[in-house]
Design a protein that fits this description.
The protein is mostly helical.
Length: 148
Protein backbone atom coordinates (compact mmCIF):
# COMPACT_ATOMS: atom_id res chain seq x y z
CA UNK A 1 0.00 0.00 0.00
CA UNK A 2 1.24 3.45 -0.77
CA UNK A 3 2.13 5.80 1.98
CA UNK A 4 0.45 8.83 0.54
CA UNK A 5 -1.66 10.58 3.12
CA UNK A 6 -3.31 13.92 2.46
CA UNK A 7 -5.11 15.12 5.58
CA UNK A 8 -3.62 17.44 8.17
CA UNK A 9 -2.84 14.29 10.16
CA UNK A 10 -0.61 12.87 7.39
CA UNK A 11 2.70 13.47 9.18
CA UNK A 12 1.28 12.01 12.40
CA UNK A 13 0.05 8.92 10.54
CA UNK A 14 3.45 8.39 8.93
CA UNK A 15 5.12 8.85 12.32
CA UNK A 16 2.78 6.27 13.84
CA UNK A 17 3.51 3.78 11.07
CA UNK A 18 7.25 4.23 11.60
CA UNK A 19 6.77 3.79 15.36
CA UNK A 20 4.77 0.57 14.91
CA UNK A 21 7.28 -0.79 12.39
CA UNK A 22 10.05 -0.15 14.93
CA UNK A 23 8.06 -2.29 17.37
CA UNK A 24 7.94 -5.09 14.80
CA UNK A 25 4.40 -4.73 13.48
CA UNK A 26 3.77 -5.28 9.78
CA UNK A 27 2.08 -2.26 8.17
CA UNK A 28 -0.22 -4.50 6.13
CA UNK A 29 -2.18 -5.29 9.31
CA UNK A 30 -3.18 -1.69 10.09
CA UNK A 31 -2.11 0.67 7.31
CA UNK A 32 -5.38 0.32 5.37
CA UNK A 33 -7.28 1.54 8.44
CA UNK A 34 -5.02 4.59 8.68
CA UNK A 35 -5.55 5.22 4.96
CA UNK A 36 -9.32 5.18 5.60
CA UNK A 37 -8.91 7.48 8.60
CA UNK A 38 -6.87 9.91 6.51
CA UNK A 39 -9.54 9.90 3.79
CA UNK A 40 -12.29 10.35 6.41
CA UNK A 41 -10.54 13.38 7.92
CA UNK A 42 -9.83 14.91 4.52
CA UNK A 43 -13.48 14.60 3.45
CA UNK A 44 -15.18 15.53 6.73
CA UNK A 45 -12.70 17.64 8.71
CA UNK A 46 -10.25 19.10 6.17
CA UNK A 47 -9.03 21.91 8.45
CA UNK A 48 -8.68 19.86 11.66
CA UNK A 49 -5.26 19.54 13.23
CA UNK A 50 -6.26 18.09 16.61
CA UNK A 51 -8.22 14.89 17.16
CA UNK A 52 -11.11 16.37 19.09
CA UNK A 53 -14.01 14.41 20.53
CA UNK A 54 -16.29 15.22 17.58
CA UNK A 55 -13.86 13.70 15.04
CA UNK A 56 -13.16 10.61 17.14
CA UNK A 57 -16.84 9.91 17.75
CA UNK A 58 -17.74 10.43 14.08
CA UNK A 59 -14.90 8.11 12.97
CA UNK A 60 -15.89 5.38 15.42
CA UNK A 61 -19.63 5.68 14.73
CA UNK A 62 -19.06 5.33 10.99
CA UNK A 63 -18.08 1.72 11.69
CA UNK A 64 -20.85 1.19 14.24
CA UNK A 65 -22.83 -2.01 14.14
CA UNK A 66 -19.86 -4.32 13.68
CA UNK A 67 -16.42 -4.92 15.14
CA UNK A 68 -14.85 -2.08 13.12
CA UNK A 69 -16.00 0.53 15.59
CA UNK A 70 -13.78 -0.78 18.39
CA UNK A 71 -10.89 -1.29 15.96
CA UNK A 72 -11.28 2.31 14.84
CA UNK A 73 -11.15 3.48 18.47
CA UNK A 74 -7.91 1.58 19.05
CA UNK A 75 -6.41 3.34 16.03
CA UNK A 76 -7.12 6.69 17.68
CA UNK A 77 -5.67 5.50 21.00
CA UNK A 78 -2.41 4.73 19.22
CA UNK A 79 -2.00 8.37 18.20
CA UNK A 80 -1.20 9.14 21.83
CA UNK A 81 1.78 6.73 21.66
CA UNK A 82 3.55 9.19 19.38
CA UNK A 83 2.67 12.16 21.59
CA UNK A 84 -0.24 13.40 19.48
CA UNK A 85 -2.94 15.24 21.39
CA UNK A 86 -6.16 13.28 20.91
CA UNK A 87 -9.49 12.61 22.54
CA UNK A 88 -9.36 8.96 23.55
CA UNK A 89 -12.48 6.92 24.09
CA UNK A 90 -12.28 5.03 27.37
CA UNK A 91 -11.72 1.28 26.92
CA UNK A 92 -15.13 0.54 28.49
CA UNK A 93 -16.89 2.67 25.83
CA UNK A 94 -17.74 -0.49 23.93
CA UNK A 95 -19.53 -3.35 25.66
CA UNK A 96 -17.39 -6.39 26.34
CA UNK A 97 -18.01 -9.19 23.90
CA UNK A 98 -19.66 -12.24 25.37
CA UNK A 99 -18.21 -15.65 24.82
CA UNK A 100 -20.44 -18.15 23.10
CA UNK A 101 -21.20 -21.61 24.37
CA UNK A 102 -18.31 -24.01 23.99
CA UNK A 103 -18.53 -26.70 21.35
CA UNK A 104 -18.22 -30.21 22.75
CA UNK A 105 -16.23 -32.49 20.48
CA UNK A 106 -17.26 -36.08 19.94
CA UNK A 107 -14.76 -38.81 20.76
CA UNK A 108 -14.16 -39.32 17.05
CA UNK A 109 -13.52 -35.60 16.48
CA UNK A 110 -11.06 -35.53 19.38
CA UNK A 111 -9.28 -38.58 18.06
CA UNK A 112 -8.99 -37.04 14.59
CA UNK A 113 -7.85 -33.71 16.01
CA UNK A 114 -5.08 -35.15 18.17
CA UNK A 115 -4.02 -37.47 15.37
CA UNK A 116 -3.60 -34.39 13.18
CA UNK A 117 -1.53 -32.58 15.83
CA UNK A 118 0.65 -35.68 16.25
CA UNK A 119 1.42 -35.61 12.55
CA UNK A 120 2.18 -31.90 12.31
CA UNK A 121 4.89 -31.54 9.65
CA UNK A 122 8.39 -30.41 10.50
CA UNK A 123 9.50 -27.02 9.24
CA UNK A 124 12.98 -25.73 8.60
CA UNK A 125 12.22 -22.29 10.02
CA UNK A 126 10.82 -23.75 13.27
CA UNK A 127 12.33 -27.21 13.86
CA UNK A 128 10.63 -27.87 17.20
CA UNK A 129 7.11 -26.94 16.13
CA UNK A 130 6.20 -30.52 15.30
CA UNK A 131 6.83 -31.39 18.97
CA UNK A 132 5.32 -28.25 20.47
CA UNK A 133 1.96 -28.31 18.65
CA UNK A 134 0.75 -31.63 20.16
CA UNK A 135 1.83 -30.56 23.66
CA UNK A 136 0.13 -27.15 23.48
CA UNK A 137 -3.19 -28.56 22.32
CA UNK A 138 -3.16 -31.39 24.86
CA UNK A 139 -2.35 -28.91 27.62
CA UNK A 140 -5.25 -26.70 26.56
CA UNK A 141 -7.59 -29.69 26.41
CA UNK A 142 -6.50 -31.21 29.73
CA UNK A 143 -6.69 -27.91 31.59
CA UNK A 144 -10.00 -26.83 30.08
CA UNK A 145 -8.45 -23.75 28.52
CA UNK A 146 -10.66 -22.27 25.81
CA UNK A 147 -9.71 -19.51 23.41
CA UNK A 148 -12.26 -16.72 23.14
Amino acid sequence: MSRSFSSNFASDIIQMIEYKEALGYKPSSYEWNLQNFDRFCLENYPKATVLIKEIVLAWCQEGEGDSRSEYRASTIREFTAIGKEAFVLPSNWFPASKAGLPYLFTNEELSNFFSATDHYPSRANSPLLEYIVPVIFRLQYACGMRPQ
